[in-house]
Amino acid sequence: MAASAPGKLILFGEHAVVFGEPALSTAINLRTEVFARPHTEWRADGGSFDEPRYRYVKEGLGSSAAVTVAALGAVAELEGRDLNPPVIARQAFEVEHEVQGRASPIDTTTATAGGGILVRKEAANGLLWTIGRDTRRWFLHECALPPLTLVVGNTGIGAATGPLVAGVKERVDRSPEAAEQVREIGRLTLDGLAALQRKDLEEAGRLMDRNHAILNELGVGHPMLEKLVAAARPHSFGAKLTGAGGGGSMFALTDRPEKVARSIREAGGKAFLVTSEAQGLRRLP
Ligand code: PMV
C-alpha cells in the first residue's frame, strides 16, 4: 500500500501559530511517497524503526509532516481503513508534537488537506477541522489563494524545529515585547492574506519582509538566511524565511523567478521554483 502527501511553505505566521496566532501556508508541488507492506514487526527502509531519524525525516520543506501524513495514510490502507483526513491530521499533529516537544497543527494539516490553509483562533468560512492541545485550540480552514510564483532558497543548514520553538517560548515568557511581536505577526498574517487575495503582491511582499524582520527579532534568523533574502529582494515583491528558521529555507514572492533563482544560487543557496498544490494526502495505485 502506498500514499503520498505534499510538502508546504508557510507564507506568514510561523512560530506565532504555536501561540495560537493566525498563520497561512500552502501545499507545494513536491510530494513524499510512503510504501507499506505487512510484516511481522515494524521496520523502516528494511531496518530498525527505533533510529532517531525515523521519528520523522527532518529535512526539506515540511517534509517531516509530509512523511508523517503519508506514513499514517499508507498504514491506514494496510489495515483496511479509509483515509479519513481529520483523523489523520490529528494523529499526525500528535506525532509532531511528540517529536518536537511543542508544535502547531499547520504543517500536518497542510500535508493532509493540500491547497492554502489558514489557521485562526476562531471558526470562519472554510473550516476544515479543529485541533486542540492543552489550553490551545486551532481552527484550520481551507483558503483560496491566487496562483503564486515562489522561489525557495535552501541554505543547506539543518536546524531542528523543537529547540527553535522552545527558544521563542522562552523569549515570549520573559519579554512583553516578544509577546507583542508574536501578536503583530498574527495581525500581519491576516493583512497578508487579504493582500494576496486581492492580488496586491507589492503589499503582500512588504508584509512578508516585515514578518521576516520580526522573526529575526525573535531569534530564529541565520546569517545565511539573510544572505539569501538579500540576494532575492532586488527582484522580488518580498522575501522571508519559512518554517522554523535557524537555517533551513527562505522563499521569495516574485514575477522574475529565473532571476531570483540565479541570485540565490550565486549567494550560495540551492534554489527551486515551486507552485501551489491543490491535492493533499492521496492513495497511490
Ligand atoms: O520548519 P518546519 O517545517 O518544521 O515548520 C515549523 C513551523 C513552526 O511554526 C515554527 C512550528 C509549528 O509547529 O507550527
Corresponding CATH architecture of the largest domain: 2-Layer Sandwich
**Total number of domains:** 2
Shape: globular
Order of strands, widest sheet = 6-7-5-2-1-12
CATH topology of the largest domain: Ribosomal Protein S5, domain 2
pLDDT averaged over residues: 92
Could you walk me through the main structural features you see in this protein, from its secondary elements to its overall organization?
- This protein is an alpha+beta fold.
- The protein folds into two domains: 2-146, Ribosomal Protein S5, domain 2 (2-Layer Sandwich); 150-274, Alpha-Beta Plaits (2-Layer Sandwich), CATH 3.30.70.
- The protein contains eight helices and twelve strands.
- The strands form three sheets. A six-stranded antiparallel sheet has the order 6-7-5-2-1-12. A four-stranded antiparallel sheet has the order 9-10-8-11.
- The longest helix is centred in the middle third of the chain and has 22 residues, at 176-197.
- (3R)-3-hydroxy-3-methyl-5-(phosphonooxy)pentanoic acid is lined by residues 10, 14-15, 17-18, 62, 103-104, 106-107, 161, 165, 243-244, 248.
Keywords:
285 residues, alpha+beta, Ribosomal Protein S5, domain 2, Alpha-Beta Plaits, 2 domains, four-stranded antiparallel sheet, 8 helices, 25% strand, binds (3R)-3-hydroxy-3-methyl-5-(phosphonooxy)pentanoic acid
